Amino acid sequence: MFWSAVSVPVISSHSPLLRSSKNSRLIRDGEIALSHSWIPPSSRIRGFRSRISGRILRLRDCTDAQNRSTERSRTGTRAERTAVKSAQTAVRARQRTVDHHSARPRRTPGFAIWKGVPAVCSAVASVRSGAVDRRAEIGALSQAVARSRLADRSAEPIGKSGIRRAPRFEEIAVKLQVALDVATLEDALTLARQTADHVDILELGTPLIKAEGLDAIKAIKAAHPDKLVFADMKTADAGELEADLAFAAGADLVTVMGAADDDTVRGAVAAGRKHGKDVVADMITVVADRVTRIREVSKMGVSFVEIHAGLDEQAKPGYTIQTLLDDGKQAGVPFSIAGGIKAESIASVQDSGATVAVAGGAIYSAKDPAAAAKNLKSLIR
Ligand SMILES: O=C([C@H](O)CO)[C@H](O)[C@H](O)COP(=O)(O)O
């Protein structure tokens, strides 16, 4: 399940409704994230009213926060106006980054969760809701703005200044993706059935797609319509055509090689736009100057990059997942990690700020794949 960039203040996070709801996740006291499926598409753009804990709150996404805060800045006390104005500036600056990195930020707010945007949006929403103490909220707003400014610097390598990356994703659990790296559709359906309850994304591995063809995407999606289906096409040429085929077969996310020609990446992105779906740039084989290429492909409109060490690279002596995590931290764009994630390493993947953790061997090679997936999920804080 994807969690929306909408991060809303709640009056009481102790509400049984919020605690038990499959559709909301407590980020921290006073703030929840809502699942995409729970938010009608139009509301992701315009905001909507929802009754939570008996109070009506205004929910909005990052772009909406910008618009609404304009209204707010016309009224209220001087302190409120100043606070909202700084938030507006911060949100706009962040939004520009979102626009820059993703051609479809408004339609994919889930991938816009980075660099302090939700914190600012949430704080703007708090001030606007008028439901809680204004002084406290203005304090929260200022903090969010400061955090966003700090995050501005996070794209730069950590240098002598000693400035560390500002916290970005850590309040929101990383999504778990199982790589169905098996050779038959039958085995893939079995593995998907065993693990679906514990994962957010079902990935059809490249070998599976090659063995069974695009119909395998259709079959997995039909069996698990509530899950995001990721087609690991690893497209190296004819990006638009190949991505189009995978999306038409039912994929929600499709990979294109980050090492491919820029036009191949752009082509896949164009297909993604046409279908309203997401393209992921797989950075497998890009090792030298990986951060530079990650930033380049991000600007081409992919939803996020997969920083990936393939099975052959993992088999080399001295391989460590840490280099992938370090590059993710340094790149300052949304990323997933794939490269032999195990129970021992999944916490560090989350700490790196990854959006998605991809696990193949740790699940399909386990004696009990369901238990392995469940365990990995439980290790995500
Ligand atoms: O993409 C993958 C690889 O290239 C084989 O197709 C894997 O799905 C990915 O590496 C995740 O698997 P593990 O590395 O075994 O966790």
How does the SSE layout of this entry go?
Layout: E1 3-9, H1 16-20, E2 24-28, E3 31-35, H2 41-46, E4 48-52, E5 55-59, H3 62-72, H4 78-101, H5 117-129, H6 134-152, E6 175-180, H7 185-195, E7 201-204, H8 206-212, H9 215-223, E8 228-235, H10 239-248, E9 253-257, H11 262-275, E10 278-282, H12 290-299, E11 304-308, H13 311-314, H14 322-331, E12 335-338, H15 346-351, E13 356-359, H16 361-364, H17 369-379
Parallel strand pairs: 6-7, 6-13, 7-8, 8-9, 9-10, 10-11, 11-12, 12-13
Antiparallel strand pairs: 1-3, 2-3, 4-5
The structure holds ligand LJD2ZHX5.
EC number: 4.1.2.43
GO molecular function: 3-dehydro-L-gulonate-6-phosphate decarboxylase activity; hexulose-6-phosphate synthase activity; orotidine-5'-phosphate decarboxylase activity
Biased composition (Basic and acidic residues): 64-83
Word description of this protein:
The protein is of the alpha/beta class. The protein has three domains: 16-73; 78-154; 175-378, TIM Barrel (Alpha-Beta Barrel). It has 17 helices and 13 strands. The protein has an eight-stranded parallel beta barrel with strand order 6-7-8-9-10-11-12-13, surrounded by eight helices. The protein has a three-stranded antiparallel beta sheet with strand order 1-3-2. The protein has a two-stranded antiparallel sheet with strand order 4-5. α15 (346-351) links the parallel β12 (335-338) and β13. α3 (62-72) packs parallel to α5 (117-129) and α4 (78-101) packs parallel to α6 (134-152). The longest helix has 24 residues, at 78-101. The model is unreliable at 1-23, 26-32, 34-75, 97-135 and 147-171 (pLDDT under 50). The ligand O=C([C@H](O)CO)[C@H](O)[C@H](O)COP(=O)(O)O binds at residues 179, 181, 205-207, 232, 310-311, 338-341, 358-362.
